[in-house]
Amino acid sequence: MSQSVILDEEAGDIPSDEVLNNESHNLSVEVDSNNNDVHLKFSSREAMRDFAKSILHESYYGSGEIEFYPLVSDGKSLVVDGVRLTENSKRMFVWCK
Question: What's the rounded Cα separation, in Å, for the pair 4 and 82?
Answer without folding.
Answer: 18
